[in-house]
Each structure stands twice: as C-alpha cells, then as structure tokens.
Specification:
This is CC42M protein. Pfam families: DUF4200 (PF13863). Keywords: Coiled coil. This protein folds into 3 domains: 101 residues; 88 residues; 64 residues, no CATH class. Helix 4 runs parallel beside helix 5. It is an all-alpha fold. Helix content is 82%, strand content 0%.
C-alpha cells in the first residue's frame, strides 16, 4: 500500500506539479535569500499538492469504506432474504410433502375401504348363497322333521324333538365309543399276536441255538470219550508192559537168587545178604566167579597165545571171606 502511494505521488509530482527551473547562470546569479524563498515556495506547493492528494485519497478511502459497509449490509440483507427464502422453500416442501402424504393416505384409505367394501360384498353374496342353500336344505329336510314329530308323538317318552335327538346322539356317541374300544381291543389283540409270534420266533431261534450247542457238546463228549478210550488203552498197554517188566524182573531176581544160592552153597560162602538185595547177590556171584577164575588160572598153566577171558568187575566193593576161597588181589 505504501509502495503504491509513493508511486502515485511521484507520478502526480511529475505530471501536475511542473516547477520552472532557473537557468544555471540565473541561479548562480540569484541571492541565497531568493533561492531560499524559491525552495520554500516549491516545498509549500509540494506540501499543498500532497495535502490535496491525501485529502482525495482519504475521501476515496471513506467512500470505499462506506461502499464496503453498504455491501456488507446488502450481503446481510441478502443472507437474511436467502435464509427466509430457504425457510419458505423448506416450509413449502414440508407442506407439499404433508399434502402428498395425506393424499397418499387418502388413496390408501380409499383403496382399503374399496377392498373392504368388495370383501363385504363377497361375504354378503356368500351369506345370501348360504341362506339359499340352507333354505333349500330346510325344504328338503321338512319331511324328516314331520317324521321326527310323528316318532315323538308315537313314542311319548320325550318332551320334544331336540330331547329325542340328544338321547339318540348320546346313544350314537356311546356306540362310537364302544366301536373305538373294540377297535382298540382289536389293535391290542393284534399287538399281542405279534408279540406272541415274536416270542415264538425267539423261542424257536433259541431252541435252534440250544440244539446246535447240544450237538457241539455231544461232539465234544464223543471226542472226550474217544480220548478217554485211547487213554485207557494206553494205560492198559502201560500196565501190561509194567506187568511184563515186573514179571521179567521177578524172574531175573529169582535167577539171581538161584545163582547166589548155588554159588554160596558150592563155595561155602556165608549167606549174609538179604534176599531182596539183588545187587549184592549179583556182586557175590561175580566175586565167586572171579575167585573160581583165579583158582583155575593158578591150577592150569597159561598156554602161549591164549589169554584168559577177563570177568567184569563187581558192582559192590565189599570183600568176601569164606573157608576154602581166596580173595583175588584186586579185591584185597
């Protein structure tokens, strides 16, 4: 702003304030007081021009400020007018919307009323048709009414037709209940027969399983009997073999006892051995045979090329001492 004012003043001084310049010879010839007055005049003229420019600028600024204030007021007025117009438009839109809503509600109400009227007309038509059907049915059932009144007059047990119909209705209900009970009984009977058949099937299947188990047990019994027979035959064979072995052992013991008795009797050896000690008896017989072999060897000279047969050693280490026999050196 200051730069623009300076340019403006410079232009004004250059265009409007034209100062006459004094020639050099004239300025040099003038007095200092004259030059001072001239300078003061120039300064006064510049000050007046500057003051006029300032006044003009101030007036222009005041006019601009007034214009700005007027524009602000106009803007505020326009804003108020716009707000009022906007409120008016909103109110108009709301009124129009309410009017449209009321019109829509009125149309919907009219449609509902029309539908209700159509429904009522249909119901009325249906009721009229039903009344016509009931009237035709009444005309068709009038003969039955006359018949019921005649029955009521003939029976004389009931006061009126509804009482008679109620009685027969109760009888029909009792009959229906009895029929329902009979049907339930038939159903229970069918269920009982079904359970009986199921029980029979289960019993037959259980009987078949039992028969199969009995057959298996019989097969096991036969196998066990066969095993028992085989065991008995094997045991009989073992017993027969044991009997044979026992008999053979008895024969061996008897033969050993006979040999023992013969040897002791022949060699005059005392019989200090138990009869059941077969091993000791065999040892005694062997020792006797060894003694006899030694005696034979002493009595008969040994021939060249011949060697006497060596007897086996005795199983018992007890030496024998008797009257005429000599104990061999191996037994001393």
């Amino acid at each position: 702003m200051a730069f623009g004012l300076e340019e403006y003043l410079r232009t004004a001084f250059r265009d409007k304030l034209w100062l006459q310049t004094v020639p050099a010879w004239d300025a040099a010839a003038q007095l200092p007081s004259a030059r001072l007055l001239l300078k003061r005049r120039e300064v006064a003229e510049v000050a007046r021009a500057l003051q006029s420019q300032r006044e003009e600028f101030r007036q222009r600024m005041e006019r601009l400020e007034q214009r700005r204030q007027q524009l602000g007021q106009r803007k505020d007025q326009l804003r108020d007018v716009a707000l009022k117009f906007d409120a008016f438009l909103k109110a108009s839109a709301a009124r129009q919307e309410r009017a449209l809503r009321r019109a829509e509600e009125a149309r919907a109400r009219g449609a509902r009323q029309g539908a209700e009227a159509a429904r009522l007309r249909r119901e009325l038509t249906g009721l009229l048709q039903r009344r016509e059907r009931l009237a035709r049915r009444l005309r068709s059932l009038r003969g039955f009414g006359d018949y019921l009144r005649g029955v009521l007059a003939r029976t004389g047990q009931f006061q009126d037709v509804p009482d008679m119909l109620a009685h027969f209705g109760a009888l029909a209900g009792a009959r229906a209940a009895l029929a329902q009970q009979a049907e339930a009984g038939q159903e229970r009977l069918a269920q009982g027969w079904a359970r009986l058949r199921r029980y029979q099937e289960e019993a037959s299947s259980e009987l078949l399983r039992t028969k199969s188990e009995v057959a298996q047990l019989r097969a096991h019994l036969e196998a066990a009997r066969h095993d028992v027979l085989q065991g008995e035959s094997h045991w009989a064979h073992i017993q027969s073999m044991a009997t044979q072995k026992t008999l053979l052992l008895g024969q061996i013991k008897l033969a050993v006892l006979n040999l023992f008795q013969l040897a002791t009797a022949w060699l005059n050896v005392p019989m200090n051995v138990a009869l059941e000690d077969t091993e000791a008896q065999l040892d005694t017989v062997l020792l006797c045979m060894q003694d006899l072999a030694a005696i034979c060897a002493e009595l008969c000279p040994r021939q060249p090329g011949l060697s006497p047969r060596r007897l086996p050693d005795a199983t018992s280490m007890r030496p024998l001492h008797h009257g005429g026999a000599r104990v061999p050196p191996s037994q001393e």
